[in-house]
Automatic annotation (TrEMBL):
<dbReference type="Pfam" id="PF00149">
    <property type="entry name" value="Metallophos"/>
</dbReference>
<dbReference type="InterPro" id="IPR029052">
    <property type="entry name" value="Metallo-depent_PP-like"/>
</dbReference>
<dbReference type="InterPro" id="IPR004843">
    <property type="entry name" value="Calcineurin-like_PHP"/>
</dbReference>
<dbReference type="InterPro" id="IPR052963">
    <property type="entry name" value="Pantetheine_PDE"/>
</dbReference>
<dbReference type="InterPro" id="IPR022302">
    <property type="entry name" value="Phosphoesterase_putative"/>
</dbReference>
<dbReference type="GO" id="GO:0016787">
    <property type="term" value="F:hydrolase activity"/>
</dbReference>
<feature type="domain" description="Calcineurin-like phosphoesterase">
    <location>
        <begin position="3"/>
        <end position="207"/>
    </location>
</feature>
<protein>
    <submittedName>
        <fullName>Serine/threonine protein phosphatase family protein</fullName>
    </submittedName>
</protein>
Amino acid sequence: MTKLAIMSDLHIDVNHFGNFELETLVSVLKTEKIAHLHIAGDLSNDFRQITRPFLDALSQDISLSYNLGNHDMLGMTERAIQTMDGQVIDLESKSLVHLAGWYDYGFNTSKTESEHLASKNFYWFDRKLDRGYTDIELAEQSLQKLEDLLQHAQPSTIVAMHFVPHASFIPVHPYFARFSAFLGSPKFHKVFLKYGIKNVVFGHLHHKHDEIIDGIHYQARPLGYKREWQMVQDFLKLYPHYVDGPTYELAKRYRTIKDLPEFQTFYREHLAKEFRQSMTIFH
Ligand SMILES: [Mn+2]
């Protein structure tokens, strides 16, 4: 039996990961007796300079794998992305299939492809990526890759991916609706059904999800940015007088407390818990 933990969206550059964060993560993995850690994308915006040294350090203590997220692809050639994308890992009693995934605008059918592309090129992070194919083509390639990887899948096969595989997880709030086209594709769910997959873990959204759809157990426990962390909410419950303005302004709320000595102490005491809550564990 190989105990597997899946995490995603660590964003170690924005979240300023240093030795304390690395050591705390290793200690949580040891406490939980995790034999293999998989990271389902978005480690940082700089794979070579920031992510690689982190993975090298982490792999001293734990068996490790990862798939790319959109942030990891910044500055990468399409050839490097394709080479790294899509693997099957044998973990004794189960296997892990992992890939990045992509989007085909299928979560927002209210606009044309060219309208979606115009929005993307105006504000979306992925406008900085140079992949050389249309999003529709990239999603098709990813779905084909998934089918190839699932040829020998067992019911015990676990799939990890970065992008969102079902419309059920797409936020309906109007503020988020404009991003929905770039979050994933509903076609991934159909492939999982075709191959009898029972467990899928994804990331990208920075919202936690745990839901069974058509017999497929979908789980997402992304770490996300510090301003989104559970400990920020917990801290503000304990010190409500620091709540300044509407609580949905996450960035402002976090800026108010981040340098307080009380929060610094709270951070060190609660980081292990935050990491533990951001792991999906399979026994
Ligand atoms: Mn992402």
